[in-house]
Design brief:
52% of the residues lie in helices and 22% in strands. Helix 5 runs antiparallel to helix 6. It has a domain of 51 residues. The strands form three sheets. The chain has a four-stranded antiparallel β-sheet with strand order 7-6-1-8. By secondary structure, the chain is α+β, with helices and mostly antiparallel strands. Strand 6 and strand 7 form a beta hairpin.
Amino acid sequence: MQGDLKILDVYKNSDASKVDKFDASLKSSYSLASNYEKIEADFAWLDIMEDTIKYLDNILRNPNRFIINDEEVVNVEQARRITVESIKHLAKHTNYIQEIEDNGDVRPSKVLNINKDESFNTYENRLIYTLINNMRTFIDFKVSKNITASTLKDEKKCEYTGVTKIGAEKVSYSFVLNAKTDVDKKDGFRNGMSVEQRIARLKLRISDLTNMPVYVALAKEHVAKVIPPIKKTNLILKNTNFQYAMKLWDFIQNYIKDEDTVVRDKKLIEEDLNLKEMLDDVFLLNYLAVSSINNEGNLDVQARAETVESLTNKMIEKIVQLNADLPVDKMLESIGEKVAVVKNKKEASLAELERKYNERIQIYIDKINEFSFR
């Protein structure tokens, strides 16, 4: 349209009595359905888990462990081997000596047997074991929400039907308007992979961790999970792998609320008086536009002035309805500024037109002056 609304000229040139008859006989109905959904997704959890998984793998491949000495007094024939600890124990428990031979050899009846076993049940290993289980729970929670991207969906559907009568002329009008916004930011993509692909890959890598000997041994023992506050052992403080693991631990622990925000609004409007009046005006303007092809109507100056005044009053009424909460002085100031801008534009347009007209006339006069008959 580039500037002026030409449809208003149709209104200004119309017969005011025709507009009154249109309004008097108008019967209309409408409905406006709106469906709005906005999702702001947060994938920081997925980024930090992907970045940390390799450090957890390093820890489980080189786990912290300690030796368990299982001490048991057994019959000498059941002893697997005699150690220094066995001899010391026998020296303190001479009642286990069965016989001392002439050459000084000692024949014990029982000895201390020591079985040495490695154990992964350390605080640091249990910390990583707990962290892996927390990751699995966290991922299941996120997957259950089925949020794979930040999206915006805004759908509106308006249906309108109207009938009226102007003299012998019967007029009917209907329309269906659909407006739809559907935006997918794809902000969960990383390295060419979608959120679904990234989660599937992460779950597979976590599954690999749970099949490693350390995790399997701790799960078999049903070890107790580590709960905050975390003990700051030397290994946890100084080892690079544990430093990254603790960043992920703190992230999950501090994730006290769901960082995804979801806004949904679905409604059906059928009784908004202002909206109905605007839609009725659309009906009217469309009718006047179609009627303008007839040769009815170059109105005289008086009728045109009355129509313009009626149009102005209606437009002011609409402005007030749409800005009911705006203070009167502010509304008048805004209208005054807009009027000044439009008037300046018109005056500037007229001045430019006059200037160009004068230039063309002067060029023509110059050519006349230069012309001579031979």
